[in-house]
Amino acid sequence: MQNLSQKEWEALCDGCGKCCLNKLEDPDTQEVAFTRVACRLLDDETCRCAQYDIRHQFVPECVTLSPSNIAEIAYWMPQTCAYRLLFDNRPLYDWHPLISGTAQSVHDAGISVQGWTVPEFEIPEEDWEDHIIEGSL
Predict the structure, then answer these.
(1) 17 within 8 A of 112, measured Cβ to Cβ
(2) What is the pLDDT of residue 76?
(3) What is the pLDDT of residue 137?
(4) Measuring CA to CA, how many Å separate 79 from each of 19, 60, 76, 92?
(5) How far are the Cα atoms of 38, 82, 88, 98 from residue 48, in angstroms, in the given order?
(6) Which positions of the chain have pLDDT values less than 70?
(7) Considering the chain, what is the average pLDDT of its residues?
(8) Backbone angles phi, psi at 58, to 5 degrees
């Protein structure tokens, strides 16, 4: 992963949008619970950041994933995430766009968050627990 160019690194993103879901982390166990509450910049239709290149201007706490920090971040990435899969030395799924040849495959496989998120500005943070998604993402 360290030898990938920036373009190759970015191409690993499958476009599922799961990393843009707000998460709740237990400080004692580091257990991460995904919610269906999405970052305000997530485009629910495309499952991409609407302001990716300038996202830190709007969401300063947005994490920039890189080969140098994947070891610290992988535990809260979705189970299906290519970055996490490669970090764990596991293969990509057949629906991944680099395998299937089409960006639509992640949506067709039902892996993306397309159409079922709620924007974070509509849900008070104290109510995010009410929107926890059961099961492993």
Answers:
(1) yes
(2) 87
(3) 60
(4) 10, 25, 9, 11
(5) 11, 15, 24, 17
(6) 135-137
(7) 92
(8) -100, -35
Distance separating alpha carbons of residues 86 and 20, to the nearest angstrom: 19
Rounded to whole angstroms, the Cα distance separating 28 from 35 reads 19
**Which two three-digit tokens encode residue 127?**
């109510």
Total number of residues shown for the chain: 137
Question: pLDDT tens-digit profile of 116-127?
Answer: 999 999 999 999
Query: Which pTM value belongs to this model?
Result: 0.89
Q: Which of 71, 44, 50 is nearest to 62 (CA)?
A: 50
- Rounded CA gap, 119 and 106, in Å? 21
Listed in sequence order, the residues at least 6 apart from 17 whose beta carbon sits closer than 8 Å to its beta carbon are: 38, 42, 44, 47, 48, 112, 113, 114, 117
Distance CA 137, CA 124 (A): 23
Distance, in Å, from the CA atom of 57 to the CA atom of 25, rounded to the nearest integer, reads 24
pLDDT for 136: 52
Q: Is the distance from CB of 85 to CB of 91 less than 8 angstroms?
A: yes
Identity of the residue numbered 49: C
DSSP at 92 = P
